[in-house]
Amino acid sequence: MSWLWAGVIAAAVLSFAQKWIGYQVPPGVLEKPRIARVTSLLPVALLGALVATQAAADGPQLMADARLPALAVAALLLALRAPFLVVVIAAAVVAALCRALGWG
Amino acid sequence: MNTHDPSDRSPAARSAHEAPSPDAASVSLAVSAARRKGLSVGVATGLYGISFGALATASGLDVWQAMVLSAIMFTGGSQFAFVGVIGGGGSALGAALAAVLLGIRNTLYGLVLAPTLPRGGAKGAARSLLTIDESAAVAATAGPPAAKRAGFWAAGIAVYVFWNLFSLVGALIGQSVGDPGAWGLDAAAAAAFLGLLWPRLVSKDVVAVAVAAAFIALIATPVLPAGLPVLAAALVAVVVGLLPRRPVAGGNRVDATDEDGEQA
């Protein structure tokens, strides 16, 4: 077995174990107010970070391209209470159009 | 998420699993809304598997190695980090380390989801495997526990099926399919994350956390290895959550506490 295979298998198994461990924390821990606040704010922080990196990061660089107008349209549609799928498709269409027109 | 019954929009109903059980009709509305959302997130994300498969084989993995990553590792950020390190000439150990560092956030998701999802057995293992950005985000925004479960399984299973299917397509046909970016799929993913974030922005505090996290992720992007910026941003939640506050009645109802305590 090559080192690459060993790395693939080890990383895959460890990644699964990481997911599993999160569920093994005793439920009582989560009911403490501060812990509860942290766990309810975590998705907000992670989503905020994922929006930013998905919209403006290109590998290790920041990049303003067709994703930004697409995200702006998505935000506008969300403010207008458009359904989720409409928002996602509209963003894809805006980005694809911008790129077809040669920008971003 | 915008198809929820308006009664779901009160801070109390939003405040996760402790919410008093709403009537059956609004729960079933929330369940089907969460399921639809999960499916659409799954399809949009899964299509991106093409780019993973193509990048993996371009980086020197064979089709089987790419598919072991998609089927067992099954967390896109870690998978891209792994093949990125290999493609950049790094060692298998370095690739595994990058993947594991990125996967730390999946442990945090499990922490958040544990009260809502079944423990043990085959379902317990499936629940672990399917714990990723998208399933955790759909569950977190779904309202009542039944809707959280429905959203988690719908998103997790849909992403799993499409991600693996399109990883295989990408690995087999390699770069010839072209750039998913040309189809706007990268922007669609950003919009999906924004759409999942939106309904949680119920108080100034929460908005501040989201904005600060986005800012930190961006300034960390040029200086930290791929994936760590998102993790660094998660520290915002930890710091803000642990800050001392004056006690407010109903201390456990986090979102309600934020509104009552901070907007007065």
TrEMBL record, chain A:
It comes from the Bacteria. The chain crosses the membrane at residues 35-56, 68-97. Keywords: Membrane, Transmembrane, Transmembrane helix. InterPro entries: Brnchd-chn_aa_trnsp_AzlD. Pfam families: AzlD. This is AzlD domain-containing protein.
Automatic annotation (TrEMBL), chain B:
It is a multi-pass membrane protein. Keywords: Cell membrane, Membrane, Transmembrane, Transmembrane helix, Transport. The chain crosses the membrane at residues 39-61, 81-104, 152-174, 180-198, 205-220. Residues 1-21 are annotated as: Disordered. It holds the Pfam family AzlC. InterPro entries: Brnchd-chn_aa_trnsp_permease. The keyword Cell division does not apply. It is found in: Cell membrane. Belongs to the AzlC family. This is AzlC family ABC transporter permease.
